[in-house]
Amino acid sequence: MTGLHPSGAGLARSEHGPAVLVAGALPGDRVAARWTEPAPGGRFGLADAFEILEESEHRVDPEYPRCALAGRCGGCPLARIDYATELELKTKALVADTLAEAGFEAARVLRPALGHDVGKRAGFRNKAILYPVDLTESGTTERRFGFFEARSHRVVPAEDCPQSPDWMKRTARALARATLSAELELYDETSGTGALRALLMRDGARFGSIEPSSDVRGLAVLVVNDFPPEGSAEFERIARTLVSAMPEGVSLVAHRNARPGNALLSFEPGASTVLCGRGAVDADLLGLTFEVRPETFLQVNSLQTPVLYDAALDALHLSPGDAVLDLYCGVGTISSVLARAVGPEGRVTGVELVEASVEAARANAKRNNLANVRFEAGPVETVLPRLALERAPTKAVLDPAYKGLADSVPAVLAKLPITDLVYVSCNPKTLVRDVKRLAAFGFELESVTPVDLFPGAFHLEAVAVLRRPGDAGS
């Protein structure tokens, strides 16, 4: 096995035949496999059976696993190899190779990856999504919550995922028992019947620390296909059963989503009903406080998020009085940190597509006493050209979704006197595509720094720094 596929399957390449995926094999393994040729138009052969002849030196000792479910649960396909090798493989496959394929000199611009602290690989997630499954044995049914097995919709019980804080583990087990006792049937995606679809949990994280605290700030959200009307006898019966099971400090919300498909939340007005607590939690990040609701986007790694933000903001060389753009700003986390850094005389403008996120961003700025930041709602590509700015920005942060920038955004940015631009990306392929587009308008790629927020998964964030001469904008 010479590499890894994004699914976590081992990848064998041959000079004379197709590459072959071997699920369960790892780089460095030597295997004997039975495989089928790629389907017409396909790129990979697929092994349906294999035997390990010689194990990779990078395999984790089974006596001291990174996760007991590694290889079964689909959440962390790389948790079966040592972390140093994982980070090296991900950096090369996701960032270095992508840069090289696009014509960039990776050796010049690629900086060392900012990896996860291997001594703190438990309890760092502040968000978890688990799915229910009923297991029946000898006529007795036990309900569990877990993750999907790789490449399937079979649920592997995983309430004790080591990446989750302890309160999430306790809450998942308690709600598994309580939802069964309350007679909430599992949702069937084929027929569209049943109630219980998923369990979403959000932690009121103290970013930068994963030390256990007696002051639990947790939010549990039961995503349901249907729920009785509030105030009805059936509602009261189910609510009492569920609330009585909740650990101290954890709020509980029932969120209705009757839409078919994989979307977790509906985003419809009135979809959420608070059963106990306040329906939101507060998170502390870089000395600021942000409200986290079920739908709030926030980086899920409480340890590495400050590392990511510091890498991005340090590259801007901010000074008091600077004017800065924050595009795709979400609920204003980066905008707020920028506003504090540029001081009362500085100006920060955030632009975000989702109106609810903009409202949350404004509320977050107010609660953090930041009067020098404003937020605008709408697509960046339509808001930015008509934006009336008090002061022309010279610096910008871009943090788009997986699909990257809309086609017109680089040209619009080029019309502003921006000299320093930082692009935070969750998809190195669209990052590199957009960097090439920006280069056509005089922005030069200075560096790309991978940041690992998902140890065990085939994923990296990346921070790209671009500069442009000061007289290039108009």
Automatic annotation (TrEMBL):
Belongs to the class I-like SAM-binding methyltransferase superfamily. RNA M5U methyltransferase family. GO terms for molecular function: iron-sulfur cluster binding; rRNA (uridine-C5-)-methyltransferase activity. The active site is at 426 (nucleophile). This is Putative RNA methyltransferase. Keywords: Iron, Iron-sulfur, Metal-binding, Methyltransferase, S-adenosyl-L-methionine, Transferase. PROSITE patterns: SAM_MT_RNA_M5U (PS51687), TRAM (PS50926). S-adenosyl-L-methionine binds at residues 299, 328, 352, 399.
